[in-house]
Amino acid sequence: MASTVMVKVPRIKLGSQGLEVSKQGLGCMGMSSNYGPPKPEPDMIALIHHAIASGITFLDTSDVYGPHTNELLIGKALTGGLREKVQIATKFGISRKDGKMKISGDPKYVRAACEASLKRLNIDCIDLYYAHRIDTSVPIEITMGELKKLVEEGKIKYVGLSEASASTIRRAHAIHPLTAVQMEWSLWSRDLEEEIVPTCRELGIGIVPYSPLGRGFFSAGPKLIENLSEGDNRKTFPRFHPENLESNKLVFERVSEMATKKGCTPSQLALAWVHHQGDDVCPIPGTTKIENLNQNIQALSVKLTPEEMAELESFASVDVVKGDRHVFMESTWINSETPPLSSWKPE
After folding, report:
1. How many alpha carbons fall within 13 Å on the CB side of residue 329?
2. d(Cα 325, Cα 310) in Å, to the nearest integer?
3. Which end of the chain has the smaller Cβ count within 10 Å, N or C?
4. Is 65 a catalytic residue?
5. What is the spatial distance between Cα 131 and Cα 93, in angstroms, rounded to a whole number?
6. Which intervals of the chain form a coiled coil (predicted)?
7. What is the Cα–Cα distance from 308 to 312, expressed in whole angstroms?
8. What per-residue confidence (pLDDT) applies to 189?
């Protein structure tokens, strides 16, 4: 396995507006929601403190995680002078009512969501504020206009989009510069490479891959599903359905074989592949265990040749991986377009 000597986490510039973050971030969602019941608060605060002490300073949350409880957790974890040591990214736009998801990019909603997140996080300014999903009923120019105002008022420093199409990214960036685009990117989720990555690089926008370990698949393989607790929403993802998992386990087996040769774990190998995409890329693997966090940091020391990168990619090519990367109900808001600005009639 990879050396247990602590690796120094480098710093990178994310985007071209001045935001500097650790080269690897920490996705905080699973501490409070989505992946089974909330984890004990003292343990999660200890984990966040350990991450910061280890050099990971980029914390990713959203108002919908919990909902609200993940932001509250981070607010509690950052008391006592720690706020100044981190960059906080949070998101707005997804709400759940009566079990249904609603996406909103309306200016009033954007402002109210920002004010509420500031209170829960117990901070004066959000470092990076993303639209979590794109509202297909509101022109992106209208949503960005409000975000621009929030920057001017000092309530947020930098703006991002999550799961946006290339043309939406261009339209948004023309209103106010985007610092980052957050997308799923891992060995087996690569649909952003054709249009979104080149668009971000052309415009000087950083890329923040979420689920860089395939929602835990590259950590545990097919046995991940056997060990999921009640209420873990990964059970609903198509790639984890039994008919797809049988094929997908071959992907994990091949990655595991290569990891053994490299002297690292499969998850370190998969994460190293994401890191090797460039210095404008900052993955945010999530975890609820200090041991896993340490392993994820070790991935920064795994070096891959272009030949090894290509070999890894062949293990998880589009024709090999079975099942969509997201659940059906989310598909409406993946890479979707907003209407033209000329069509907008405010209420």
Report:
1. 10
2. 21
3. C
4. yes
5. 6
6. none
7. 6
8. 95
Q: Which two tokens stand for residue 311?
A: 């070999």
- The token duo for 258 is 């290569």
d(CA 147, CA 111): 8
pLDDT of res. 330: 60
What is the distance between the terminal CA atoms of the chain, rounded to a whole angstrom?
Answer: 59
Question: Which superfamily is assigned to 11-340 in CATH?
Answer: NADP-dependent oxidoreductase domain (3.20.20.100)
- Per the DSSP assignment, residues forming a β-bridge with 215 are none
At 123-139, the pLDDT tens digits run 999 999 999 999 999 99
Q: For residues 210 and 312, give the distance between their C-alpha atoms in angstroms, rounded to a whole number.
A: 19
Domain boundaries, the chain: 11-340
Rounded Cα gap, residues 114 and 103, in angstroms: 15
Residue type, 212: P
Active-site residue, selected from the candidate residues 65, 109, 158, 210 = 65
Residue 59 contacts residue 89 (beta carbons within 8 Å): yes
Distance CA 105, CA 339 (A): 12
